[in-house]
Design brief:
With 374 residues, the protein is α/β, with parallel strands linked by helices. 40% of the residues lie in helices and 23% in strands. The strands form 3 sheets. An 8-stranded parallel sheet has the order 5-6-7-8-9-10-11-12.
Length: 374
């Protein structure tokens, strides 16, 4: 099978889809999702899809991603054997520094092709699935809390029980009010998590997060800026609630430093920040060795990246906190997938078809594409 196919075509689609509501975070607001879809084709007629979902305030830009894919990585990919994934990714790392989202899209598209060639889902190429469903978490981030309450009620009716409250973008008392309201409405039947997205100064963080512990959150995520590792370690030391590191841990090297400094009890796994599924598995391996738990995070994504993330999280043996692949179902005005991303009764179902198990609908992709290259 190796050597029987070559990559013959590469096309980059810049997609921009309005959201159903503004979501506010400690580092900014998002009301439209601007993402990049990579389409690879082989000489034998197979197509592989990948997604790069940068957020300028978090990791990168769509413009840099397009430049990396269309300008720098095209020569690496055209003519290559899509089964030689690690070799291609090593060449990608040697060709362009950074751009983890672009590399994530490349690896995802290669795995999609490899899965179709082998007749296997991507999860089986990563070592095999450990689960068939993953609990879904929704991020409560609308500055209009009354609107969020209506959304939460609808998701509750759909079976969703995990809700992550975005905090730090407004006054502290607003955060306390929202948490108190949700605990009062749903009691312990709701699993509450808290995410500051780097929204606090280190000197104020301990006092404020201690105020939130009375609401019994499952974890508190990234209260201070990415580089404030000493502050993260101190907050983790003094809290009773587990602390989760997201922006402070992008890759395996940062995971190792984070584990050595004990900056958190949990790490958020994300394909985009790690530069691919297998690089995210490296972060998970470091976490496992250090006794640190993991959670399935995402960026602002369509269903293509959600499918890739689902395969990744299915293959992580010690994932216990669920995933947040809610955007294609509950946040975007319309997703690009031909078949709806598989969410049922508050759970994400791991696809069983070959490759990713889904691909964009040409009409939807065309409707939301604002630029195309290749």
């Amino acid at each position: 099978m190796i050597g029987t196919e070559t990559i013959s075509g590469l096309r980059v689609h810049v997609v921009q889809i309005p959201a159903r509501a503004t979501h506010s975070h400690g580092i900014g607001d998002v009301s439209v999702v601007r993402t990049v879809l990579l389409e690879l084709t082989t000489a034998g007629g197979l197509t592989g899809w990948g997604e790069a979902s940068p957020w300028p305030a978090f990791s990168g830009t769509a413009e840099a991603t397009v430049g990396a894919l269309h300008g720098h990585l095209r020569p690496v990919l055209i003519g290559a054997d899509p089964m030689r994934i690690e070799q291609i990714m090593a060449r990608a790392d040697a060709t362009v520094v950074g751009c983890p989202e672009a590399k994530a899209a490349v690896e995802t598209a290669l795995l999609d092709i490899a899965g179709k060639m082998a007749g296997l889902p991507v999860a089986e190429l990563l070592g095999g699935r450990c689960r068939d469903v993953i609990p879904l978490s929704f991020s409560v981030a609308n500055p209009d809390f009354d609107a969020d309450l209506e959304t939460i009620a609808a998701l509750w009716a759909d079976g969703v029980r995990l809700f992550k409250m975005k905090t730090g973008f407004a006054e502290h008392r607003f955060d306390l009010m929202r948490l108190e309201t949700l605990r009062g409405l749903y009691g312990d039947a709701i699993d509450l998590r808290i995410d500051y997205n780097q929204g606090m100064k280190p000197y104020e963080a301990v006092r404020r997060v201690r105020d939130l512990e009375v609401f019994r959150p499952t974890f508190i995520e990234q209260p201070v800026p990415r580089a404030d590792l000493a502050a993260m370690a101190e907050i983790a030391r003094v809290l009773d609630t587990p602390l989760l590191a997201d922006e402070s841990v992008f890759n395996a090297r940062e995971a190792l430093i984070g584990a050595q400094m004990r900056i958190a009890d949990l790490f958020s796994l994300k394909i985009m920040k790690s530069g691919g599924l297998r690089r995210a598995l490296e972060v998970a391996a470091v976490a496992r060795a250090a006794g640190i738990g993991v959670y399935g995070g995402c960026m602002f994504e369509t269903g293509v990246a959600h499918l890739a993330g689902t395969h990744l999280m299915a293959a992580v043996p010690d994932l216990t906190l669920g995933c947040e692949f809610y955007m294609s179902t509950y946040y975007l005005q319309e997703d690009v997938l031909a078949e709806a991303f598989p969410v049922r009764n508050g759970m994400v179902a791991v696809p069983t078809g070959p490759g990713l198990g889904g691909e964009p609908d040409p009409e939807r992709l065309g409707r939301w594409t604002v630029e195309a290259w290749g």
